[in-house]
Amino acid sequence: MQILLIAIFSIVLSVAAQFMLKLGMSSLDVKQAMAGPLTPRLPWIVFTNKFVFAGFTFYGVGAIVWLKVLASWDVSKAYPLVGLGFALTVLIGMLLGETVTAFRVLGILLICEGVWLVANS
């Protein structure tokens, strides 16, 4: 049970990373830099944005946490749990006002069913 909670924590960090990256890439300074020509300064503007930086940090911490999961479980059992991140991302996206279609919900339900089947195998 403990390793499952560790896996879920890693997945939550990855989902949080996605939303941080989206916030950063939606910021005015990054949008303006992305709209202009490709210059050597562009990566600096993007990577020094606090939300982009936080997103990469969350990904890094999540990857380190995930190493504990891989040390305890077979990859074929652990990796399908990452599919839960899709469901969590859609839920949070809905709470933030993103449009979620019926087909997207159906796809997420199918992913969750697959995760359940793998977890019980």
From TrEMBL:
Localization per record: Cell membrane
Classification via InterPro entries: EmrE-like, Small_drug/metabolite_transptr
Main location: membrane
Residue ranges crossing the lipid bilayer per the database entry: 51-71, 78-96, 102-119
Membrane topology qualifier: Multi-pass membrane protein
UniProtKB keywords: Cell membrane, Membrane, Transmembrane, Transmembrane helix
Name of the featured protein: Small multi-drug resistant family protein
Organism listed in the record: Methylomonas rosea
